[in-house]
Amino acid sequence: MKKFNLYPKLFLSYFVVIMISLTSVGVFSYWSSSNELDQIVEKQLTQVVGNAAHHTDLYIRSYERSMVSLLSSNDVKRFVDLPEGETGYPYYEARKFIKELIIEPAFARNPEISNIYMISFNQNAMYFYNDTVGGSFNKEEAQQQLEFFKANTKPDGSLSVLNHSILSGQQNITLVRQIRGLSSTEPKGILVVELRAAELSELWKGIDLGEDGYFFITDDNGKYVYQPDADKTATELPEAIRSQVLEAGPHAFMAAIDDKPQMFMSRRSTYGDWRLVVAMSVKELRKPSDTIRTTTIVVGCFTLGIALWIAFRFGRSITGPIRILRSAMRQTEQGNWVQIPLPEHRDEIAELMSRYNLMVTRLSELVDKVYQAELSDQKSQMERQKAELQSLQLQINPHFLYNTLETIVCYAVIRDSKEIYEIVKALAYMLRYSVQTNLEEITVSNELKHVMFYLVVLKHRIGREFEVDVSIHPDYLLNSMVRLTLQPLIENAFQHAFADGVEDYHYIRIDAGEDEDKFWVSVEDNGLGISESRLEELREKLHTNQLADKENDSSKGIGGIGIINVHRRIQMVYGEHYGLQIESEVEKGTKLIMVMPTSARGKIG
């Protein structure tokens, strides 16, 4: 494709992209939808079988409860205690009471019951039929029935559900359990209730499993207990599914019955060890997936045709204007500045052609802009020079002031006024220190010297000596800090910490140290201190740089203008993570801490 022009490259690229997109979308959508449908169907089958098993168990449980009246009847218990071969008055008396008081009400309440009978271990038997033709059985037949039920029930009296009936030609579900008499706690007989299987099948008629789907029940021996095809009831399961139905777990399995692939889902019932099974045709299950596949192919082919037609038109719309632009640029190479006719539509290509038409004009405008830029640069240069000149002029006034202070010092020496000499000398140093440099950083030792001269002036103001305790280790004296930050904190202590006057026990201590990556200088006093509420308010205002708002009242416990000035200048030099911190307790004093980076150490020396 390297030798191809732009148009075939675009067309082939679009074709490949479209084919890959359609194929991947079609394949993955079909695969994911097919898997999703299989999961939905399996979940549906699981719910169907689970619901069927649940309703079947509830159905049988209701009849189990109805047997309680028989089990608790003293007449029934006396019957099973009758001696072997009893056919006299006690037998007929028990039969009469059992029939009138128990059997006939049970038949009236539950027309689904086909018959009820009981056989004692002494070979006495009673048979009762509900709208069913049935007869009596001789002693040998009753004994055979007794042996069968004893072999298929448990001595603890729990219920057993069997696919067995004493009536030939009928499909009945048999509920049987061993019962006790009055004379002993050991089992003395068998109680049997037979239900019509047709009534039980009504529970499953509402299940819609498609045209070829069906529902059936099998016992633990692999025989049909219920099957929609009545001819298959009581017959063996097909070998293709027998073992899988009896051993199936929570998931569905596939098998072919009469060469028709089917999906089966099997669940065990609580009673009778039955297996309730749902079967659905794989063809019907795959029908939605097949529909999706066919629809995907048809829509994909139709989409491919439309996409290729759009790609053809789109490629021509791009390459056509580019050819025109290429021809015009060849003319430009020869020195012919030609204008390109613009198309009616507006897009990036049309914008490119428009830009080409403006190229010559823009070149002249760019030359003019370069000239204007040079003029502007000269103007900025002049403004900077003017600002520097103003800065030099502003230095004249402080220079005049401390020259004047030096003159006053001379007069004080001549007049032998030591106080004036000390005050003016200290004030002159402080003024010179304030304006002599534009540097924001200075050493700790220089700041301490500035504080010393301030104390000289202060001594004459308060009329007494006051010594500041400097506890700074010599290793920190060459650390750098922001200029003119220590003296305002000392002044703040005299104005607010000792608002009632300086006493002999008062002190101010200056200390410094390092914590991890921070260097700090503190000013601590033992003055009035600040209340907790007021301290929180001051910290909040310090955080928002609002401490100077209406904070000049000395009764508030701390000054504002000098403090915010110190805090802001530290932040301007070192960043927002640094600044001033306040610690205080009422009647114990206040501690102001300037926090700076340890990298400041040794920068000025």
TrEMBL record:
InterPro entries: Bact_2-comp_sensor_kinase (IPR050640), dCache_1 (IPR033479), HAMP_dom (IPR003660), HATPase_C_sf (IPR036890), HATPase_dom (IPR003594), Sig_transdc_His_kin_internal (IPR010559). It is found in: Cell membrane. This is Cache domain-containing protein. The keyword Signal does not apply. The chain crosses the membrane at residues 12-31, 296-315. PANTHER family: SENSOR HISTIDINE KINASE YPDA. It is a multi-pass membrane protein. Residues 316-368 form the HAMP domain. Keywords: Cell membrane, Kinase, Membrane, Phosphoprotein, Transferase, Transmembrane, Transmembrane helix. It comes from the Bacteria.
